[in-house]
Amino acid sequence: MNDAQPEVAADPGDGPPGNAAVSETDAGRVARLDSLGDRDVILHTEGITKGFGALLVLRGIDIHLRRGEVLGLVGDNGCGKSTLVKILCGFHRQDEGEIFVEGEQVAFHSVKDARQHGIETVYQDLALIPALSVYQNLFLNREITRFGPLRWLSNKKMRQMARQYLDDIKVQVSSVDALVESMSGGQRQAVALARATVQESKILLLDEPLAAMGAKESALVIDLVKDLSHNRGVSMIIIDHNYQHLFELCDRLNVLQEGRISLDLRVEDTTMEELTALMVAEYRRRIMLGHQELRV
Amino acid sequence: MRRLSDVFFARPEATIFIVCVALIAYFAYRNSTFYSYYNIIVMAQYMAPIAVIGAGEVLLLDLAEIDLSSGQVFLTAPWFVVIMGQHGVPLGWGIGLSLLICCLIGAFNGAIVVWLRVPSFVATLGVNYVLAGWVLIASSDITTDMPGTTGKFGAWFGISNWSEGLWGLGIVILIWALLKGTKFGVHTTATGGNELGAAEAGVRVRRIKIWCFVILALVAGFIGIIDSIRIGSLDPAAPGLNEMLAGVTAAVIGGTALTGGKATVVGTLIGAIVLGVLEDGFNLIGISANWFILVEGAVILAAMAVNVQLGRWTLKTARR
After folding, report:
1. Set of chain A residues whose Cβ sits within 8 Å of the Cβ of B256
2. Residue A30 in this model has a pLDDT that exceeds 50
3. Strand A252-257 relative to strand A70-75, pairing
4. Interface test with chain B among A125, A128, A141, by most B beta carbons within 10 Å
5. Residue numbers in chain B where pLDDT is lower than 50
């Protein structure tokens, strides 16, 4: 399977992709991708395996993520994308293999451990509190308090900081006092992303950040993801089933098949059609294999 | 002006506030005794336990839990004082130890809910009956005098006109400050609104729950002791569930949701005032207590219906 691996973006010696007619935005993107190649790797794994009972879900995963890079994970249902993300965020523990953050080997025993290394996860089922306001959600469990043991809330300060931060990352809400339950899906996702990044997190893991969102809502989140990665240097790993979203959001795509990374592509070096064709071919191959196994 | 009305109606306490003002105006118009100094004192004494138990229950309702034993703790705390007094424990120590036992009862409630995962409705119902049974056994079912009703001590803790009302108001203000102004309060609302999400953010949801049970039991026991000192005697057969339900009623008609994440101590205070005004007003204009129960039921239904509709309406306008 690994023989199909065409090109690895990690190699900084690669020339620009041979795309003849690049538009201006594409050119900018290519420049960004080239510059990413020179940046340091903030997160990488070596030979991660994970099984549940007799089922081996991950069979030696090597991924790497550069500072400020957005990496998309592609693959069929049950290929291990979510398991990999859950290992990286400290929810599951890998059976074998190592995780490195900024070159340093780490062991996560809990989500809290991962968070302490700057890895934040934004879950599909948003972990916001609907009954609390935007700023209360942003500061949940890191409230600014005064009067020592009384832990009296400094609401004024928190409101001000929340407003400032949301302005910085260009998230528009009617008011930081607005309750999250009164907001649309896109706005909620934006607040969730803001909460994950308000404390200088370095790595963000996003599981289907655009699920069940309309075009307008999606645009809001896409802009925010781009702003966070381009201007704030936040590195991200995104799982999404929608290729269009992935091509818009990501710098690089890793294809997971049967518990391995079968392809590592820069988005500039491939197209949606090509990726779809690859996935369909793989799907067919597996069906054929299944038939052969049946015959044997 | 429209904005002002929007802000007003967006508050969950709005409905009950209007009901409260209307009732006060009605009874004051029907009978001038209603706003006499003495009657206001009587009403304050009646409202205080309801407001305190209600405000304490707000903490639990905010967590989407409930404590059915709070009324029985209210009735049992003075019995602890009496029984300890009979065994030679000085009054001050008796009250202190009684309040400590109340805290332990609260912690027990919380522990059963959090660690054994028994629904709070069932767990606290059990504790309610255990306490009620204990009172009947320990008192041999005989009405007893409450100690501490004399001198300066008695005056401070229940005998003087405003004592119970002011203690009640003070405790309600403390609970309001706890819920609205502190990290503990935000974490309580967060736990009730989305327990998993709060836990993921690192909120210690179990600890929060246990503390809320402890706080409710403590304030219910305290106002129970004050109430008994004022009345001067203890009835072992008094049903605690009634006191608890009055408190929960005040909370619910005040705009607190049973489903968690929506709580208002201010609304609960107004709710307690409404219940007190209704009871007292009906007495004054000569309508029987039976009618009071019927009207109380109607008020709960009407207030809830209006609150739910207003909630939907404000959510819709906010999304627009």
Report:
1. none
2. yes
3. parallel
4. A141
5. 1, 320
